[in-house]
Write a structure and sequence with these properties.
The protein is of the alpha+beta class. It has two domains: 93 residues, no CATH class; 81 residues, Sandwich (Maltose phosphorylase, domain 3), CATH 2.60.420. It contains four helices and eleven strands; from the N terminus they run βαααββαββββββββ.
């Protein structure tokens, strides 16, 4: 070719960044869907890149040829290597997929503001998820979060129920050695969002 694209031309078509599943890019596509409020599409793509789903039977295990518990840098699309994973334990995509799943899909993160820390819950999930839960250990304290989605929305406003009172889904994160329960109900929004 007239222009040298760099090391990528050293890979045959369908291998690494030169086609197939390039996991870094896949994680960013999933994140883009979540930022647009498209929980169904994002979850479907996350399931596609989830390594365990590449090794559900003996034939798939032989084809995939890498650990089903480690995120690969890529999955090949080249005919002679179709479905084979590559570059496990090496890719930064594992960290990106973790962030995409926890921070943007489950919508759970710790926010620091004015010297204090807050637990924030703002999910973007498949509409079919009517509920889910997660547990966060912060120091010596356990936070059990239950999210309810009775209107089957991907994303909408939320209301936190704490001792029967409504409040925002941002909660001061304290380390008091206790066991705290937080219930968040997704409300409002359109049927599409």
């Amino acid at each position: 070719m007239a222009h040298d694209p760099g090391y990528i031309k050293g890979y045959i078509p369908g291998v690494r960044e030169n086609g197939g599943q390039y996991t870094h890019a896949a994680a960013w596509v999933i994140l883009a869907y979540l930022l647009q409020g498209e929980g169904d599409e994002a979850h479907q793509l996350l399931e596609m890149v989830n390594p365990i789903n590449h090794a559900l039977d003996r034939e798939q295990v032989r084809r995939y040829a890498v650990e089903p518990y480690a995120v690969p840098g890529d999955v090949y699309a080249a005919e002679q290597h179709l479905g084979r994973g590559g570059w496990t334990w090496y890719t930064g995509a594992a960290g990106w997929l973790y962030q995409v799943a926890v921070r943007w899909l489950l919508g759970s993160w710790i926010e620091s503001r004015d010297g204090a820390q807050y637990l924030v819950v703002d999910p973007c999930v498949p509409k079919s998820w009517t509920s889910f839960g997660l547990t966060l250990r912060h120091g010596t304290t356990t936070w059990r979060v239950s999210v309810r989605n009775p209107r089957e929305r991907s994303r909408s406003g939320t209301r936190e129920r704490r001792r029967g009172r409504g409040s925002r889904s941002r909660r001061p994160l304290v380390d008091d050695g206790g066991d705290h329960e937080v219930i968040v109900t997704m409300i409002g929004g359109s049927a599409d969002g």
